[in-house]
Amino acid sequence: MKNIVKKYGDGFPAVNDISIDVADGEFVILVGPSGCGKSTLLRMIVGLEDITSGDMMIGDRRVNDLAPRERNLAMVFQNYALYPHLTVYENIAFPLRLAKADDATVDEKVRAASKTLELDEHLDRKPANLSGGQRQRVAMGRAIVRDADAFLFDEPLSNLDAKLRGQMRSEISRLQKKLGITTVYVTHDQTEAMTLGDRVAVLKRGILQQLATPRELYSNPGNLFVAGFIGSPPMNFLPATVEGTSVELPFGSVEIPADKAEKAAGRGLLIAGIRPEAFEDASVVEESKRASGSTFKATVEVVEWLGSEAFGYIPFEAPPEVQEQLQQLERDLDGETLRTQLVISLDAASKVSEGDEAEIWVDTATMHLFDPSTGENLTIDRENAGRVLTLQEEAAAQPA
Amino acid sequence: MKQRVGLVVGVGLILVWCLLPVVWIVSLSLKDAVAVTNGSPGFFPADGAFAGFDNYRDAWGNDQFRRAIINSLGISLISTTLSVILATLAAYAIARLEFRGKKLVLTTALAIAMFPVVALVSPLFDMWRAVGLYDTWPGLIIPYMSFTLPLAIWTLAAFFREIPWELEQAAQVDGATSWQAFRKVIVPLAAPGVFTAAILTFFFAWNDFVFGITLTSTEAARPIPASLSFFVGADPFNRPASLLAAGAVIATIPIVIIVLIFQRKIVAGLTSGAVKG
């Protein structure tokens, strides 16, 4: 669908040397914190933003210099951009009218779209009288009436409340599967990214960090940034030193598989990334599973019990160089620098309560080790990580 | 309750204050000319002084007067239309495009609006006579446009800035050319602004007296306010006050109609619902 894309803002590289090849019918998500260039990239695809260099290909056509209307793409804007002076019917019919379709065709297509989106009873109303979700559906209706080559979504759900967002998310997913149309979807919400996308492109400051399936992103993040961005609650980052097959963490040593240890050997101080769900209260872990991980003792400071699971918080001290890297990471992720603490997911049956010293089991097979200075994931499984930004690429992308 | 009484009294006072002269003109226009000359101070015509619609019939029967009405209507409508079209295009450019000298255009426009009309009248008089525009419709349309354009541009630019840019982009993605996006999306949304500008322009052109009396000499182009001042009737030493009053009332009717028509179009909050606020 789309070939090599390389872009530039006005001096400032808003989008830098990004190449994404979107297959026909694929659902690709562009995700990243605000200001990472994801919306700019989308607007370049649709033609609302100029492309400084590189080629934007749709099919076999180079569309760099084509006006938006010549690209045959449909876009849903973040704020819907409905035409307030037109009824819902006319809003949906607008692209058809511009294409000079005859009335019968217009009517047929609009009815079909409104049926798909359950807008039938609202067709005569004006956008001002619709709820947020309805407006959202009208905006989508306007996109689907045309036989566009691709859909582009620019944070379409960010204006909806949480409950509606969930509904619309599944709605979009269903619609995309049904129509089988190529889709590029921009969001800053990693839940949307994980649930909707066939493949997810993680961007940071205009640079593509990793392009992979949600599962690959989750289990094999290419660097600290991706690791910290994907997952909620986020991955824990701990200072670690590897000696043989044991890793020295602030709470004690744990054993890791030999192949991982080998990749990280002799590197000195590293950052260990462990997902909260890799931890468990040792007392509720089955004996058979227990052997595959290690246990350590720590005092759980706070416990949040959510019914289906519980989160425990364990504060720890980090050495300055790790601290600094983690603070930088937080800034990249739009977060605030909190104190260094370990978030662990506990079984709901766990009896650990606040202030207890508990024995914690950790599944070390899923642990990743990162280079603290470059953020690179040392223990990545390259086969299953999609496309990852390499250090050389990153260096090349940096403006001189 | 007390507040209500206060409100009613206040509104009543303001209404009387504003409308009394208007009502008085209407009363005057219904009186017999002779009675007015002899002194007829009452609001209602005295016995036998009621002229019915005779004055209106006389005023309307006057050739000069009818010519003046046609002149005024023609000149005002043409200058309003042209001014609004030009202002819409200019304001759109100012609101949407970045170009050198944008500030200059805006300030110059404002400066023109600040110029006292009287100061420009004599040079225009000379110029128009030299180029042959004196006593013609274009001779009035041009100054009317140049004086109303700045205001219209400023009003419309403010309206255009309010319209979310996404709408236009959405239209372009939907397959519209820039011109189609402008005509089908932006202009309908700016309609309240367009009609506001139109009303203001029409007011200015219709009510203007200084240009009207200076730049015309015959009924070829003389507009109604100027014409009324030349309306002397049969006896030059005896100004037909009631006839003039009738003329004034007739001259007011078009403007009332136009305002009523345009006002319907000024629906506030038309853009609501376009984007999530």
TrEMBL record, chain A:
Classification of source organism: Bacteria, Bacillati, Actinomycetota, Actinomycetes, Propionibacteriales
Q: Which organism is it from?
A: Nocardioides psychrotolerans
- An annotated GO BP: carbohydrate transport
Molecular function GO labels: ABC-type transporter activity; ATP binding; ATP hydrolysis activity
Which terms in the GO cellular component ontology are assigned?
Answer: ATP-binding cassette (ABC) transporter complex, substrate-binding subunit-containing
Query: Which Gene3D superfamilies does the UniProt entry name for this protein?
Result: 2.40.50.100, Nucleic acid-binding proteins, P-loop containing nucleotide triphosphate hydrolases
Identification of the protein by name: Multiple sugar transport system ATP-binding protein
Q: What keywords is this UniProt entry annotated with?
A: ATP-binding, Cell membrane, Membrane, Nucleotide-binding, Sugar transport, Translocase, Transport
Could you tell me which PROSITE patterns the record lists for this protein? ABC_TRANSPORTER_1 (PS00211), ABC_TRANSPORTER_2 (PS50893)
- Residue ranges constituting the ABC transporter domain according to the UniProt record: 1-230
Identify the SMART domains for this entry: AAA
TrEMBL record, chain B:
| Start and end residues of each ABC transmembrane type-1 domain | 69-262
Gene3D superfamilies on file:
MetI-like
Query: Localized where?
Result: Cell membrane
Q: Name one GO cellular component term.
A: plasma membrane
Q: Signal peptide position in this chain?
A: none
Q: Sorted alphabetically, which keywords does the UniProt record give?
A: Cell membrane, Membrane, Sugar transport, Transmembrane, Transmembrane helix, Transport
Q: Does the keyword rRNA-binding apply?
A: no
Indicate what this protein is called per its UniProt record.
Answer: Multiple sugar transport system permease protein
What species was this sequence derived from? Answer: Nocardioides psychrotolerans
